[in-house]
Design goal:
By secondary structure, the chain is α/β, with parallel strands linked by helices. Helices cover 15% and strands 38% of the residues. The longest helix has 11 residues.
Length: 139
C-alpha cells in the first residue's frame, strides 16, 4: 500500500491557492479540469515531501455548506522558522488561532476553515509578541 493524498473541498480556489502556496509555501504539482463533472482538482505538495500531496477539490458553482471542518481534524506541516511562517500568514490577513508561544507549535485555518498545524523543525526560544499572545477562536 502507498499513501497518495488527502482531499479537501474548497469554496474559492484562488483564495485557497493563495493560502496554501503563498502562505504555506506548497507548490502546485498538477491540475485537472473536468468540465463534464463541473469540478477542478489541484494537487499540491511540499518541497521536502513531494510524494505526500493535498488535493484541493473545487466544485464549480457549488453552494454546499462544508461546515466548520472540525470533523476533519487538521493537516500538519513542519516548517523551518515558525515565527517567520506565522508572520507571513498574519501579514496576508490570516488569524493565528494558536500562536507559537513555545517556539514549536501553532495553528491557523485555511479560507475553508481547515485547521493547519505548524510544527517547528527543532524548537526556537519563545519570542514576543508570540509568547504572550492568547489563543483566538477555534482551530
Amino acid at each position: 500500500m502507498k499513501y497518495l493524498h488527502s482531499m479537501v473541498r474548497v469554496r474559492d480556489l484562488d483564495a485557497s491557492l493563495r493560502f496554501y502556496c503563498e502562505g504555506l509555501g506548497l507548490r502546485e504539482v498538477r491540475r485537472k479540469e473536468v468540465p463534464e463533472g463541473k469540478f477542478t482538482l489541484v494537487f499540491l505538495s511540499a518541497a521536502e515531501s513531494p510524494e505526500a500531496e493535498i488535493e484541493l477539490t473545487f466544485n464549480w458553482g457549488s453552494q454546499e455548506d462544508y461546515g466548520s471542518a472540525r470533523n476533519f481534524g487538521h493537516l500538519a506541516f513542519r516548517v523551518e522558522d515558525i515565527y517567520a511562517t506565522c508572520e507571513r500568514l498574519q501579514a496576508m490577513g490570516y488569524t493565528i488561532h494558536r500562536p507559537p508561544r513555545d517556539g514549536h507549535m501553532a495553528f491557523v485555518r485555511s479560507p475553508d476553515l481547515i485547521s493547519i498545524e505548524l510544527l517547528q523543525e527543532g524548537q526556537l526560544p519563545p519570542r514576543e509578541p508570540w509568547a504572550s499572545m492568547p489563543n483566538t477562536g477555534n482551530w
